[in-house]
Structure formats: C-alpha cells, structure tokens
Amino acid sequence: MNINATLIGQMITFGLFVWFTMKFVWPHILNAMQEREDKIADGLAAAERGRHELAIAQEKVTEQLREAKTKAAAIVDTAHKKADQLIEQARTEAVVEKKKIVQQAQEEIAQEKYQALQALKQHVAVIALSGAEKIIGREVDEAANKDILDQLIEEL
Q1: Taking a C-beta distance cutoff of 8 angstroms, is the pair 153, 133 a contact?
Q2: Are the CB atoms for 153 and 125 separated by under 8 Å?
Q3: Other CB atoms closer than 10 Å to residue 121's CB: what's the count?
C-alpha cells in the first residue's frame, strides 16, 4: 500500500463528503439559520415596536392622568363654589326667617300688650266704678252709665 494512493483516496472521499454536504446538508442548515435569523430579526423588530408602543402608551397615560387631575380639580372647585353658594343661600334664608320670627314675635307682643292693656282698662273701670260707689254711697248702675264707662276706658 502506498501512502500516496491512500492519501489520494482520502482526498477523493473528503471531496465527495464536502460535495455531498454542500449539495444536500448545507442548504438545510443555511435555511434553518436563515429562518432563525428571520425569527430573531422579527423578534427584535417586535421588541422595538413594543418599546415604541409602550412609550406612546405611557405618554397617553400621562396625558390622561393630567386630564383626570384637571377634571378632578374642576369638579372639586365646582363643589366648593356650590357649597359656598348653598351656605350663603342658607344664611340668607336664615336671616329672612329670623326677621320673620322677630316680626311675628313683635306682633304677638303687641297683640298681647293690647289685650293686657284692654284687660287693665276694664279692671281700672271696675275699680273706678267700685270707688265711685263707695264715694257716692250707693250702687251705680253699670248698664245705665255704660257710655260714661266706655268713655273712661277710652281715656285710659
């Protein structure tokens, strides 16, 4: 056996192996690698889109929070104004009611004063009649002297 023949046989076998690998195996490996590369590229693109969408979503959320805070502040301000209006209205109504109650009380006092004065006049008339009876020494007819008594009551 010659080393040259063995070497040439091994070179031919290696060449056939390389040709077979390049013809049948290598395209499958390249396709698999290309598919993997495409998947990785798609994944990276999706990740980039996700980051971009996340940034947009964060901006939207920030804007919505700002709007919500503005609306909440407006609602609170409106509520405070409404509460102030209600308080002022209640004060006004209370003042009106107070004036009405005071007016009614004054009218009642005036009416009671008038009634007390009338009762006092009647009582004074009775006392005056009694005194006149004692002075005259006889009984004075109240019915006969009614007009005099009424005039006396008016003068009091």
Answers
A1: no
A2: yes
A3: 15
Q: What is the pTM of this model?
A: 0.45
Residue found under tokens 């502040």: 73
What type of residue sits at position 142? E
Lookup result for tokens 């804007």: 63
Residue environment code for 99-110, b if the CB has 16+ CB neighbours within 10 A, otherwise e: eeeeeeeeeeee
The boundaries of the domain holding residue 124 are: 3-155
Over the stretch 82-131, which tens digit does the pLDDT of each residue have?
999 999 999 999 999 999 999 999 999 999 988 988 888 788 777 777 77
The residue assigned the tokens 């109240």 is 142
d(CA 64, CA 83): 28
Three-class SS state of 145: coil
The label of the residue with tokens 């979503």 reads 57
